[in-house]
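Consider the tokenized backbone below.
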């Protein structure tokens, strides 16, 4: 039956006979308007159901959040941060031996906040904690749960926490919930530059950390470059009460990181790659421009890439076996020279920018 005929049947005729009471005519008009409203509501409900289905499809899934690399980085692979590793092991004891802590009426730590300059190894340490505890690792960024829909961000964020807790209940494996770039989510509430969406997400997080919805199977770890912007309620005892500053490595630390990076790359390539005459001199040069762990890894990568280009340009036909070609002292020194100039220029630009501000 055509839609026009259906509409004609649902519309009630209003009698125009003089004998028909005026009150009944008014009542039929009201009924007709009510029927039209019902038809509009039914159409809107259909659109609402479609929107809910789209929201469910966009909700974060466990497969998108979890990584579980048993052969990943551990504390033994972390270089140049010996004292920091010792403190992280103390944090680890509070989780592994929580029963002993309870015997002394000492509550185990609930959250770890790491702060420091970019590239100092905060994410690497978070992964090391996860592997040391044999836990699942879920890295959370605001882009994974913030959307344009009102109320959906906090709902998605709560859904992530609930999924992690359900995974612990089903499998008995704890989950390290890592909040990278935490200054976006955990900055001071009420700040005019801080979105109210993140305020509501903070309320959700705090309710699950120490509120009525507190969880047992989640280890909260956060990393930030701006500890001064973090809300004081987040850092109070009982929440992110374990706060560590991750410093830049000293001269010995730079050498330690460089050697561990070399060992990692050679293990991955299953052969010797670097033949360095004086690695300590290279470490001193990198320390002189304030290299971080990320800078050291990038210098070694660029040195290897430089040697790869030389092999290709010299022998594009593949006559030379690359396994007999090594990255030498000169390759690393050439990269350090250009890299140090770039870092120095960036620092000068930042100083000029701060002076202008």
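A designed sequence for it:
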């Amino acid at each position: 039956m055509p839609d026009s005929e259906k509409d004609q049947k649902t519309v009630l005729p209003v009698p125009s006979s003089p004998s028909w009471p005026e009150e009944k005519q008014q009542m039929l008009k009201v009924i007709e308007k009510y029927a039209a409203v019902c038809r509009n509501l039914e159409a809107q409900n259909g659109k609402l159901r479609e929107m809910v289905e789209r929201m469910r499809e966009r909700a974060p899934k466990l497969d998108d959040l979890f990584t579980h690399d048993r052969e990943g980085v551990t504390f033994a692979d972390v270089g140049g941060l010996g004292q920091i590793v010792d403190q992280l092991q103390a944090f680890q004891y509070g989780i592994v031996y929580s029963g002993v802590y309870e015997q002394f009426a000492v509550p185990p730590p609930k959250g770890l906040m790491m702060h420091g300059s970019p590239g100092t190894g905060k994410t690497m340490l978070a992964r090391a904690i996860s592997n040391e505890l044999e836990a699942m690792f879920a890295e959370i960024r605001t882009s994974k749960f913030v959307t344009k829909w009102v109320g959906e961000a906090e709902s998605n964020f709560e859904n992530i926490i609930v999924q992690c807790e359900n995974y612990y209940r089903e499998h008995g494996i704890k989950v390290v919930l890592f909040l990278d770039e935490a200054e976006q989510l955990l900055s001071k509430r009420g700040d005019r530059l801080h979105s109210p969406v993140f305020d509501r997400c903070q309320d959700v997080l705090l309710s699950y950390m120490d509120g009525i919805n507190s969880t047992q199977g989640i280890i909260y770890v956060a990393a930030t470059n701006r500890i001064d912007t973090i809300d004081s309620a987040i850092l109070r005892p009982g929440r992110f009460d374990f706060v560590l500053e991750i410093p830049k490595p000293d001269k010995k630390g730079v050498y330690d990181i460089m050697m561990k990076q070399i060992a990692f790359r050679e293990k991955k390539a299953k052969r010797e790659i670097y033949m360095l005459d004086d690695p300590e001199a290279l470490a001193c040069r990198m320390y002189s421009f304030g290299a971080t762990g990320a800078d050291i890894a990038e210098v070694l990568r660029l040195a290897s890439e430089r040697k790869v280009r030389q092999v290709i340009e010299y022998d594009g036909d593949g006559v030379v076996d690359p396994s007999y070609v090594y990255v030498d002292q000169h390759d690393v020194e050439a990269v350090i020279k250009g890299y140090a100039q770039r870092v120095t220029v960036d620092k000068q630009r930042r100083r000029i920018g701060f002076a202008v501000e």
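The first strand starts at residue 66 and ends at 67.
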